[in-house]
Structures are given as structure tokens and as C-alpha cells.
Amino acid sequence: MLDHARARPEAAALREKEYGIWQTQTWSALALLVRQLACGMAERGIRRDDHVVVVGENRPRLYATMLAVQSLGAVPVPLYQDAVAAEYAFPINNAEVRFAVVEDQEQVDKMLELREQCPQLAHIWYDDPRGLRKYDEPGLQALDTLIEAGRDFDRQNPNFFDAELAKATPQDVAAMFFTSGTTGNPKGVVHTHFSLLDRAAAGKAFDRLTENEEVLAYLPPAWIGQNIFSYAQWLACGYVVNCPESSETVAIDLNEIGPTYYFAPPRIFEGLLTSVMIRMEDASAIKRALFHRFMDIARRVGPQRMDGKPLALGDRLAYALGNLLIYGPLRNSLGLSRVRVAYTAGEAIGPDLFIFYRSIGINLKQLYGSTETAVFVCLQPDHEAKADTVGVPIDGVEIRLADNGEILVKSPGLLKEYYKNPEATAEVLTGDGWYHTGDAGFLDAGGHLKIIDRAKDVGRLRGGANNGAMFAPKYVENKLKFFPFVKEAVAFGDKREQVCAFINIDFDAVGNWAERRNLPYAGYTDLASKPEVLDLVRECVEKVNADLAQDELLTGSQISRFLVLHKELDADDGELTRTRKVRRGYIDQKYQVLIDALYGGKAEQYIETAVKFEDGRSGSVAATLKIIDAKTFERVPSGMRKAA
To answer: Which residues contact residue 98 at a Cβ distance below 8 angstroms, ignoring those fewer than 6 apart?
Structure first.
């Protein structure tokens, strides 16, 4: 940060949209703010190795707070801003947190609620004062008060800040990120300055990133993916990070900024595509026909064009016309018209979804990594992006496969440890520096890594015609989620004769579909139970089955029976992590009666489920769910497919 402030003092470092207007903060202004915050924190008692919780959306002053904490040798601990208060209790107590910096009234209320469980939480500072004027709680202050105290402290101790900075070493702890916690309590992943900046620099070199990039920071800062792209790599490259006004304005802000470097998990790309398909359904017949005609050309020609392969003159002309009429306006509508490099990670992306974006001229690539590896392990080079791989190992990374197919990684970006958990650390880190990823996969002939699934989730079917066949639930689920009508899916089949599934419909997409057919409904539960909707989902399932039938390894993973859940899977109900990963073990227990009904041959099953509403109230949702049999297909031998 200080290097950028010295070399480019008036260059933009951060932008924030406030009341509809983009406000710019320069590197020199940021450096001054960080100095004042650090001095204020020191005056309030923050010392080297202390942990400081940071909770909120992407905000310039929260970024400055993390830098200030690190300047003192203390450790920022970002937590998910959409978590309920109870979810903060374990991280705060585990890390012995005495200080918290939060965004607004909502987060202040959560911290105050926790004080009985976390009595050591003595100091809480907030950025946005709205709604907090009449709060009178010990240790609760505005961030402006801390900044003012820092100014006074800096005037009285002008050498303090520089002296503290001089104590820092690359191997000092830089940050701690708590894992999603798909099973049990989350674990605190400890990273050093070296591990984070080394991987940020490796990613910078791989994609030739410069200070001229524009990035939109809209995902939770507590997710290491967002933290790397808009914090560590921001500092390594010096590009501009733009913070949206709110989660509701992200689509508008994306269009206004036009990022050149874009990062999103598959669910974001799924949502963008769903919105496109909904709009196309509402378009005129001529527009729909043009869209589908040129999308056929894009799927055939676009990926080859993105890979730099030669095209026939007719294909070039057809694609150019499609770019003028469809692809260009579509990229602009999505806010991705200026994107030079786009990445997706966090979970596997459906191949059809991946190909869609590349076919319309967006350089979407996949990467592989995790919280424990500081994200960057494998990246896809330009012109080598494949739907079924996650790229090649980048500089400094070694990959080895264990006997059971698990991927082992050696990298400069590996975690230092799990905080206060030496047993868990020993489970994932070998004595000679290899990290157990928990993922199953292999390297193909071109050196690209191919992920099958989580090693613990890959199973085998037992009994029946598919005895011994591989079952990879995530692969099946991702194929289902490509359809705009399917928001989430959970597949079952390990040690069973057949595969069954739970499905969540996408309420917006299916609602739009129902309205165009004059199909009335009264909320999610009612819509999900409509016979017409069940038929719609069955068609999606059977298309997936037909596709799986052509895969020699996974033909046995075709879905025989399914049901559409009466409620959306939700992180507040414990069914998903905050990064929207399915908590399979919890779902197995919570919905055991539904699983038994699927495999017991029942045609329907009554269930009542406890839920938490957005306002904090608890309630329940009850329904009798229809269980649908889906058509499965015989595997087509490869020779016959070629002949056909």
C-alpha cells in the first residue's frame, strides 16, 4: 500500500458508490487513513498478535481497517456479514477476540447480542452511524472517533507507526479465515503475509495483470476468494477496487463499472444466465428466434474462437453478425463487455454454463484452490480453457496423487496451521509439506487437473444392474443446476442400488414460467408442488439422464426418482454453508424421512420442517411431497455414437 502511495499518490485505489455517486479514494488518502486508524487502535490497546474481527460488506474503511490491524502486527479475522449472531460465537471465543470493527447497526446488534457469550468482546467500532445515535453501550464507538483519536496519538508519537511497520516480517500472521464448516465447527485457517502475497503475485504474473484493471468487490470479504481478488491481489497489482452501494444494486453497479477482471462462483454465473433466459422468454417471437439461431452459431464457433483456433470465412462472418446483433448487446447487458479475464471457482461449474459464456466472447476460465492454499493452485491459461478441467499448476505449485486418487498439493501459499487445532493441522499437512485437499481427481495428458468430486463424497452404487458403478454426486448436481429452473440439487446413491435426488426450483425462473402460462400460485411451497412444475423438472432430470447415459464412468448415476423440496435450502437453517455449499451430513439427518420415502417406493411423503425467517422469527413449513419416477437410459456404446 505504501509503495503505491509513494509511486502513484493521486491514482485511484478504491471507489465506493454512495447515494448513487461513485466516490474515489486515492492511494495517498488511503495511506493517511490507515496510519490514523492504526494509531487509534494502538491507543485503544490493540497489540501485536491480537485478533480483530471485521464484519461487513466491501467498504473502503473496512479495507483500511484490515490494513491498519496488520500494520500493528495484529490479525484481522473477517466474518460473514449475513451470518446470524450465534454463528459468530465460536470464532470470537476461539480466537479470543476483544476488538471488533463492523459496518452498521445490523452488525452492532449482533455483537451486542453476543456479549453474554463472549464477555471478552470489550470494544466495538462501527463505520455507518445510521440508527445508532441513541445507543449507549460500553466500548461502542464510531470509527470516526477512533480516527480522531489516532490523529491525536500520531501527533504526539510521530515515529510510532513507522516503527511498528518496521517490525513486520513476511512470515508474520497476516489474516485468519474461518472455513465454511460443512461438518462441525469451522476451523481458523492461519495465513502469513508471504503465503497470501506470493499467491497474489503468482496470479498477477499468470494473467499479466496491471494497475489498470477494474475490479468489482461484491462477494463476502470473509470468503478467501473475494479477499484474494480484491485485497491481496489489489495490493500486489495496484488496480482499482470498486465497492457497490448495496447487494441490491450489484447488477447496476456492474454495468456502470464494466470490470476488466472479474471473479464469481458458479452460482453467480448461473443467476446471470437465468436472468437472461427469463428476459428472452418475455421477448417477441422474432427476437427469440434470432437469439436461439445465433446462440447455435455461438456454441459451435465461439469456443474455438476463444481458443485461438482458425475459423472458416463463413463462420467468421456469421459470428461477427451475431456479435453485432446478440453477443455484444448481451455482454453489455450483463456488465461484462470490458472483461479481459473472468474466473469462476468455489465449486465445479456445469460444462454447458461454462461454454455459454465463452461462446459469447467472455474469457471465462476456471481455477482451483481453497482457503488453505490461498486460492491459486491451478489456473487455466488463455486459449486452453476446458469445461472439464481446472487448469494447470501455476508457478511454485506441485501436485501429486495419492493411491486413493486424492489430490495432494505443495505450494508457497499453504496455510501455516489451523488455529488452536494441531490435530486437524496434522491431518491435512504432511511432515514434508504436502497438503491433503480432500478432492479426488487426476492430471490429463495435457497437464490439466481434472476434479471428479470431494474424495469423501465419491461413492459406488451397490446391487442391481449398476453394481460397483462410480457415483459422483456433485457432478450430477451441477448438470441439473445448468437448467434455469433448478436452483439447487442434492443427489444420493452411495451404497444404494439407484440414484435419487432432492431438487430446489429457482423461484424467479419458474415463477416467470408459470405466469406466462397463467398458472396461479401462492408462494414457493405452492409453486413447487404444482403438477405442471413437477413435469417441468422431470424433463430437466431426464435430459440429464440422457447425457449421463453417454458417459461410460457415470452412466449408473442417472436419477431414478426425485422430489421437489417444499422450501429452499438455506444457510440460516443449517442446510448450506455461508458460501452455499451443501451440508450433506446435516441434510441426510434432517430429511431422513424423505430419503426413506424415495428409496422405499412411496409415491408421496408428508413433512413438516422448522425454518428461520429473515426477521429472526422461527416457524415451520409443511407439505405432502410427490415423488416422481424419472426415465433412465441404456448406455450408448461409443462406437455406435460415432456411427450415428
So the answer is: 45, 50, 51, 120, 121, 122, 123
